[in-house]
Amino acid sequence: MGTVVLYGSVSVDGFIADEDDQPGPLFDWLSRGTIPLDDSGYVTVSQASYDYVRPYWDGIGVTITGRHVFDLTDGWDGKPPSGIDHVVVVTHRPAPEGWNPEAPFHFVDGVEAAVALAQELAGDRLVEIAAGDVGGQALAAGLVDEVRMDVAPVVFGSGKRFFGAVDAQHLLDDPDVAIPADRVLHLRYRVRR
Prior knowledge:
single chain, Dihydrofolate Reductase, subunit A, two-stranded antiparallel sheet, globular, 5-amino-6-(5-phosphoribosylamino)uracil reductase activity, RibDG_C
């Protein structure tokens, strides 16, 4: 099975968006460099960010997200972001009416079922869980192997938390990656078992 990674861009004080679901300057680092991170031409980063993020993105087989993010993005128009093979959506509702059943999106009820399906679909590739409520649920359930954060130099004060509603202590190992780059600090922690 592939490694399960909880991932997201985050403010210094631990938020992935403001109260209105706006990321503000959290993604500024994705347009501050000269190196294209993907084929769109819109995402350009520093060399340090490219060297860290591109291999990570290339290793992802499946992304898990919640229905809220799926709805905010209009389901990425049925095309998984960043060239990912599949998206697993944690939801208590069925796929939207008129949704293309051929699109590589899978709608499941519960984080445990989502991780199990994602690992099956990903094989030995990475399973990425979007930060927020679903990611926090997966961490609390002991399903996360590592936490990756792209820390932006901004303080939100309030908003949507990186770990969602997690209210218990979870120990991480010391960071094994800490890469400063333009408008971001890339961090990686293994989850202590």
